[in-house]
Amino acid sequence: MTLATHEVQQLNLAIQAAMRAVRTGGPQLAGGLGPQSSGGFGKAGGDGAWAQQLSDLVHERVREAIRDRVSETARERLAASTRKRIHEALRRRLSDDIRAALIEGQGGPEGFDLDRVEAKLSERLGDALHDRVLEAIRDGAGDAIHERLNTACREAVVNSVVAQHLGRDEAEQIGSKVRESLEPELRERIAIAAREGLKEEVRERVHKAVRERLSEAIRGGLSQMQTGGGDPESLIAVVRERLSEAVEERVAEGVKERLREAVRNGVEESLENRLQAAVRSAISERLMARQFGAGAPRFGPGGGPLAGQFGPAAMGGAMMDSLRERIGENLRERVAEDMSERLASLIKERLESAQRERLGAAVRGALAEQIALGGGFDPDQIAEAVRDRIADHLCDTVVNGIRERLTDSLREHLTASVRNAVSQSAMRGETLGGTPIAGLH
Amino acid sequence: MHPELIEIMRDQVCTIYRAVTGTDMPTVEAADGEPEPALEEVTRSFAELEAMARTNPALSERVPPFSFTPRLDVFLDGEDLLIEAAVPGVDRKDVTVECADGTVVISGIRRGRHGSNERTYSGEIPYGPFYRALRVPFPMSGEAAVDLDRGLLRVHLKGSPTKQEHAGGNTSTKVTQS
Q: What domain range is B124 assigned to?
């Protein structure tokens, strides 16, 4: 049968009129959740209100679970990984730092100056260990929280009213979504909280250990050197051996204590800022997915030409894809443009600052070391010595700068990108598949 | 496309319009010389409108879902198969049952309350086109008997004596239309 052209034309005009009405939000949509909005618990009030009700009921449970399960484990894991990193750093660089400090200690007006050696060694070691500890926290925060956070979120939701209303599978998915949403924030907050005051703590601990052990270690080393045929390396080996454990112990202990508070604060801040929105968003998303997926077949292929054409799952999928692409495009454009300029100036600025702070001392130290060790002016050795002194610091300074700038920039642009993408979609009538709707332009 | 689908789609559009504006869809006429839209383009626009309505919680609860997949119960009685499909509010004349190539296809239309001046206060029962296909686990023989009673469509199929050897098959079964 041939369809009358007039009927198709009429339908098309009616569709366009309805679309305009939906986009502009008619009086029946303004401010209300529909006819059932005053109902009690249940689906009354539309999916928005229902999601809010479920969210209110479950988010406190998730909060408690995370507090109970995540904080302590995260602290222990981070403490273990930072200790390992401290141990590696000491093994790798303590001999060099002792050697350099001993050389610099000999350069005073009154000959060998133990206080100067102590100060120089503490300073070098303090900075280096602080950098390594920060690195360990940054790298390890994700692993430290991931497993427990996942279990805590999932079980809290599965044992809540959500599972009773939506089923266990949906509850597990909501738990996973909450975890996905919280994890980056938690990781970041823990790292930020751990950074505060950490430098002083590490420096103080290093200084204390060096002050307590250095003079006795040098005495032991000198006597060892005398009995060992005057080899200065035996002095360095003894000092290293006696200092290493004490420094590791003190610093690791200090970091562990600081982590207790840092992890707790980081977790609390994240929960405060993010949890409610994360739970609400996860529940809304699942409710929407359920709505789209309603009526899915239990047997056989189901669907078919008509259901495929008008089926809500197809519509939702296409719309999500379109929105996702648009948000991604917005984000790429905004962040890429902004970051390319910002990063160039940031890297330059950080390199200059690091050079000002460290390069002169590194060159002086390297030259002094070469002279003291009788190496002469071998350009390769001097280059290596300078590189050893500043490479880590340069790298850390630039990487930290980029990380901070990137975090700021993403936070700044993400909201704007999503908002912009959604309004672009609405303005251009590209709610589905990115194709403009005829007659609306 | 089902010949009456255009009318049912228009009903749905009007329902959405009423749910948004609180008023009936005004009569709109095409401007002179406006090109006639292709049916495919119109159905796509309709799908977009439906998606917009579905994703707005305040609206979706006042607009019944359009198109659906009927739920089925399938019973085996010896060599016979009984399929029951839930199609509430559907007239027998609006249902088609086709059995071919080892698959039973049930399709049709559930009409809305066309021409009514009522406003939908809450719409949860889907209407519009429906479609369900079911692979039958053995060859069918003879005639499929179809009846519709109290919202349940029953399709009775006779099994073939050679069903143990069947693995999908190409047997075609006569369709009963009433």
A: 5-165
ipTM for the whole complex: 0.77
Which residues in chain B touch residue A47, judged by CB atoms under 8 angstroms apart?
57, 60
Q: Verify that A273 and A409 share a domain, yes or no.
A: no
This prediction's pTM: 0.45
On the question of pLDDT at A259 being above 90, the answer is no
Question: β-pairing, B127-135 with B66-68?
Answer: parallel
CB contact under 8 A, B51 and A8: no
Full residue range of the structural domain in which residue A69 is found: 49-289
List, as ranges, residues 20-79 from A with C-beta within 8 Å of B. Answer: 21-23, 25-29, 32-36, 46-48
In this structure, are A61 and A156 located in the same domain? yes
Say yes or no to pLDDT of A80 above 70: yes
| pLDDT tens, position by position, A112-143 | 788 888 888 898 889 889 888 888 888 888 88
Position A435: which residue type?
Answer: T
CB < 8 Å from B in window 104-163 of A? none
| CATH of residue B131 | 2.60.40.790
C-alpha dihedral (A379, A384, A389, A392), degrees to nearest 10: 140
Pair A189, A66 in one domain: yes
CB contact under 8 A, B132 and A300: yes
Q: What is the longest distance spanned by two Cα atoms in chain B?
A: 65
Does any domain span residue A38?
no
